[in-house]
Fold these 2 entries.
Entry 1:
Amino acid sequence: MTDAAPATPLVLLHGVGQAPMAWEDVVVQLYGSRRLLTPWVPGLRPTEKQVLPLSDGAAALDQQLMLEGMQQVDLCGLSYGAMVATRVAADFPERVRRLVLIAGQVRPPRMLMRAQTTALKLVPASRFADSGVSKERLLQALDAARATDLSDALPRIEARTLVLVGARDKANQPAARALAEGIPQARLRIVQGAGHALNEDAPGELVQILRDFLDVP
């Protein structure tokens, strides 16, 4: 009898306003089940000079996965991290086995992005300091997201995909439906009682969803 093949590594990409530690409650529950990687989303690390265009961020993440020895991964992204994950799965389809997109966007509505930018400008920079997040970098990320259109990328995604959005996250539900309709092997799940950041709002439920989706052949 041969040993079962190890589980595919899981890469978790945080959203704008978060740091990799935002996945802590998820990682603790998944620890030991597979190799886990929670990198800074390329361009959002506070020490980086500027936010990268989404395609460049995807290429940078692909290079990082190669350096980590990860030939193929399961990829889960939240918000801006979901947009980067979408581009990685489209540009490097051989790299991604399963894809989970939480509160992702295809072509962010200008009104929504304008509202988020206005709200962010009113938040003191000191509020982000403890988590190592740069307010200036967040504003740059919102600008990069506003200039993005992933419509052409969706049909090129080969990975089996799960699109998640919180029932209270009304602003991102239209995009979630667009992602599920545009990606060939995708299905949509609305998580009841949850808001935008499932990794913080409902980490236990998210862990169970990930297990169910990633572990089934």
Entry 2:
Amino acid sequence: MTGMDNHDPLGTESSATVSLGMVRHGVPVPAVLACVHQESAATLSDAQLAVLHPNERARLDGFRADSRRLGFFLGRYAAKRALSVLGVQAAMQAVEIAPGVFEQPVVKGAGSDAPVVSLSHARSVAAAVACGPEHIIGVDVEQLSPERTDVFESVMPPRELAMARHVSGGGELASNVIWTMKEALSKALRCGLTAPFEVLEVDAFEANVAGGYGCLFRNFAQYRARAWVLGGYVLAVVSPKHSLLHVAPSDLERIEQVFGRDVPRSP
């Protein structure tokens, strides 16, 4: 899979683009995950901003807060990295990741069969997934925040909360992972968190699934989530139940190196 200009204005150590290894009923399904890291919006260079479509640049210029500018840029850039590896041939600045009616990302300028993308950002990182228009996929990345556990648990149904507290390595970590999985489901559904939290309830939550976590969903049995804790962040991807993901351990290590760039190193 090759496509638009693969030049990386963030530097190769600040990004990783990998295959999700998606297989449906024994047939490979092209799907790509891109992760990027950037310390500050204050240092966005002309070369970095050049990857934005004019409409995207106009939206970015309308944000006053550096955090909003950084999140917007990183999300769009990650999405275009994923689209590039998926095989989109257009130049990055010719492709627009436009907002839909629920702010869901819509790909424009990539041809008549526009791929599906989902994107997410947290602090100084972003993640995006891309696949063909016939498929459905969602991604979320959240900074691992034990101090937010009470907030997460306050909106978890009793059955879900019990799963989080009793799974191996559960408690605070599991609550963070479940929250991220539900966010990813809301993005696959293209409604965001406008749906009631109880509708997104997790089912069959388990740890130690190919180096991460896995779950189904009580009210959306046709979907499955996979999640990993990498470099101080939780990354979750939701796909159709029978579209199985196989992310190589070496690719997870690459993502962890990107996400871990803002984790303090021991002297």
